[in-house]
Amino acid sequence: MPFLNTQHGPASDGKSGAGPRPSSHPIPDGSAVAATDLAQARRQLLQSSRSGKLDAAGLRQVLVDLHEFWLTSKGAELGIRSRSGFAIVAVGGLGRSELLPYSDLDLILLHDDLAPDRVAEVADGLWYPLWDANIPLDHSVRTVPQALQVASSDVTAALGLLEARHIAGDDDLSSLLIGGVRQQWRTEIRTRFPEVVSHAQDRWRRAGDIAHRAEPDLKNGRGGLRDVQLLGALSIAQLSDGMASLRPDSPGGAGPQAAYGRLLDIRTELHRIAGRPREQVRAQDADEIGAALRIGDRFDLARVISDAARTVSYSIDVGLRTAGNSLPRRGLAKLRRSPIRRPLDEGVVEHNGEIVLARNAIPSKDPGLILRVASSSARTGLPISASTLSRLGDYAPELREPWPAEALSDLLVLLGSGHHMVDPIEALDRTGLWGRLLPEWGAVRDLPPRDPIHTWTVDRHLVETTAHAGSMTTRVARPDLLVLGALIHDLGKGRGADHSIVGAELAIQVGSRIGLWPQDVTVLSEMVRHHLLLPTVATRRDLDDPATAQGVVETLGHNRNLLELLAALAEADSLATGPGVWGEWKASLISDLVRRCMRLIDGAGLATPEPLTDAQVSLAEGGGFAVRLEPTDGLHTYRVIMVAPDQPGLLSQMAGVLALNGLRSHSATVQSHAGSAVNTFVVVPVFGTPPEDGLMRQQLIAAVEGRIDVLARLEVRERESPIPTIASIESSPGSVLGAAAAAGSTDPETDGAGHPKNAVPALYAVAPPRVIWVETGGDDVLMELRTDDRLGLLSRVSSVIERRGADVRWAKVSTLGSTVVDTFSLFIPDDSPEARAALADAVTAVCPPPQPVSETGSGPGGTEGQTGTGRPGVPIS
Questions:
Q1: Is the pLDDT of residue 855 over 60?
Q2: Cα→Cα distances 264→98, 101, 248, 660, Å
Q3: Which of 275, 293, 328 is the last residue of a domain?
């Protein structure tokens, strides 16, 4: 039986034998004529559909009905009836009742272990007429045990058979297969889950990300039809409900099923227009597809595809993460305690590898909770729980305008976290929370660029630009304005006018809402207005002409900070545009232009200490030790005034006491009066409430008297910190790899989420630390430190300065998001270039080191959407 001998090897979608038919066969001509009629009906149906009589969904349903009728009739003719021991089962498009115009027929002929001659006769009678009529066919002949064996050994086959549907013949036989495959899938999913994840990732690597491809693969790409089908498979395994928590008013709020329907309609029209089974949307077909579906032109179609694909991508991320956390434990894993809840911020904790709300958090009374959740996700690299996003969407109120300083600070922490900000912002955007924070975002969401050099949609380009800018925050004096400008520099696109001019007006609107000072709003608006100035002038004008640099300086109003910000933004913008946009030639031209402009701008004024208030003077003149804790306008922000007899090492002890109590310094002034050090700190508790000021006074006295080694205790606290960080999480359930690893882990030294139980958080900076020296014209010198923040940083830095013999005359400390800009006025007894270099090296040694660059991405931690083959770009733009 040569025909049967070709039917038992596994193949795609659970079928085999999809090759060409044999050249000769014993099938009667009458059977071939019936199949020819089927082919003729298919052709007439497609011709009539082109005239607009059938929409995409209607065409699919008629094709399903037509093929089911033929198969049922032909099956009856061949004796495939109830209790016959034969059944025709459909998988693929026909199994899902969504047959496309040029899709294969995916069929399985089931038999109850009947005689080989009889099986061959029925199989030949069913397959050959379809071959003769040139109807594409993917087929197999199986018994139920054979089909279950194939499904058990091949994950592709299993996923295909989960969509199996009875067409004709013995329904008990079909039910035995369908029920058996589903039961087997549920039973074996724990051991097979890593393979399922790997299978999906391989497909994504081959086909790329639909939302950000020039010619997206609607079927196999990330965010495509296969991913929704995978969600269904996880739902069958009872690991996920298959639906992400999306609000009706959020982008893609109708959920992955609605997104699936949009992509399926587009794929149907693609088949109809191309006249063949094509999966990639090409630019030459896009306008016709958009017109047929009444979407608009190819740019409108690209926006619809991007929105649908991002909804599906978010849903598959949530589905895989939920599935990984839902897997039953086996072996030694059963003995582990349930995952603990680790505090991250006020009202925010980590639980089982996800960011969730603390039990006492009340979203309806805490408008800033959304940003604290997002910044915690960016800081730790952990995903936000879907239930948390849903709860925030339902109950979190709008932030009052202007935003409180705490909310702005949390936004800056999020934006300054490099490429780790991409996932939390995407999660907020898909659930409608990002648009609530930034209403102007709706105009650029999923907006395809008109220039094909751009890799990303406009909104994703803004996020990518901000991510790149995060690695440049120590280059500029105002890192907060750099990341904010990067986020909104193209916000004026899609509004029918010059986006730089429109964007400058929007920048004023945004800056005022989020609580920037008026002068900072002006600088932010000028950044957006002139974000193309340096690249345009540097590449199109003669830099040797003095008028070139003079024109730039006059345009920028002789503002050194603005010039510095525009230089960094130009690089970040180019890096986020596409491959090859930023290179040595462009970098050298802009650098040369900036140097020429800097020579024309007057030097910036030197930093000076702020005068003491009357209350501070009174505390200083009282002598002795004093600590005063005062509330501020912020809900979770406090001011701490610490006074003690001035002596070497005092600043380090004061800052260390604050750090030991979990108080993170947002700003500080270090001064002296009447022989006492008068230091004022603005602090935010990492979580909880601050201790009593009397307790901190006793701790300060003990530290000064040497009864407490503050720095040693800080080191112990950091080693034993329960708070996870990006560097300490090699693979978390937030990534599908982490979920797969957790599923197969039986290591007793890992927790339920697959993390090491006693992992030591290793801190890394998104931007490298930088020390800048400024001459004052006197005996003192100003040392400016720019670095990423860490708990106790001020204590560590001031300790290094004091151990090196330098005297801190005064200091101003500012934390702008996650970046610290600290200015110290120092007296260095043996001042020399060598002494300054040694001090700078010692200071940067206690700062978080630059984060390693992932080999799998273009930025720290890697970048999504850059996998697959072919030219990257926005769909069909």
A1: no
A2: 9, 12, 21, 57
A3: 328
The C-alpha atoms of residue 55 and residue 78 are separated, in whole angstroms, by 35
Amino acid sitting at position 686: V
Q: Do 170 and 230 belong to one domain?
A: no
Q: How many CA atoms lie within 13 A of 284 on its CB side?
A: 2
Nearest C-alpha neighbor of 461 from the set 437, 485, 486: 486
Owning domain of residue 291: 208-328
* pLDDT tens per residue, range 323-350: 988 886 665 555 555 667 888 899 999 9
Hey, CA dihedral for 60, 64, 67, 73, is it positive or negative? negative
Predicted TM-score (pTM) of this structure: 0.84
Of 442-456, 520-534, 554-568, the one with minimum mean pLDDT is 442-456
Give me the pLDDT at residue 32, please: 41
User: Of 274, 353, 369, whose CA–CA distance to 318 is shortest?
Assistant: 353
**Number of domains the chain is built from:** 5
Q: Which tens digits make up the pLDDT trace of 778-835?
A: 889 999 999 998 888 999 999 999 999 999 999 999 999 889 999 999 999 999 999 9
Dihedral sign for Cα atoms in the order 568, 570, 574, 577: positive
Per DSSP bridges, beta strands 781-788 and 770-775 are: antiparallel
Q: How far is it, in rounded angstroms, from Cα 701 to Cα 759?
A: 33
- Sequence-ordered alpha helix ranges (H) in 576-647: 584-600, 614-621
Beta bridge partners of 213: 872
Residues 571 and 569: their CA atoms lie apart, in Å, by 5
Q: Return the residue matching tokens 């995409």.
A: 56
Judge whether residue 369 has pLDDT over 70: yes
In this structure, the answer to whether residues 317 and 263 fall within a common structural domain is: yes
| Contact residues for 53 (Cβ-Cβ < 8 A; gap 6+) | none
> Same domain, yes or no, for 568 and 642?
no
Please give the Cα distance from 737 to 166 (Å, whole number): 35
CA 267, CA 716: separation in Å to the nearest integer? 58
Is 818 within 8 Å of 790 (Cβ atoms)? Answer: no
Q: Are residues 148 and 174 in the same domain?
A: yes
- Residue located via tokens 């003769």: 132
3-state secondary structure of 384: strand
**Residue 165 is encoded by which pair of tokens?**
């549907």
Distances (CA, A) of 506 to 410, 499, 512, 524, 567: 21, 10, 10, 10, 21
pLDDT at site 603:
60
CB atoms inside a 10 Å sphere around CB 482:
29
On whether the CB atoms of residues 686 and 662 are closer than 8 A, the answer is: yes
Does 242 share its domain with 106? no
Rg (alpha carbons) of the chain, rounded to whole number? 33
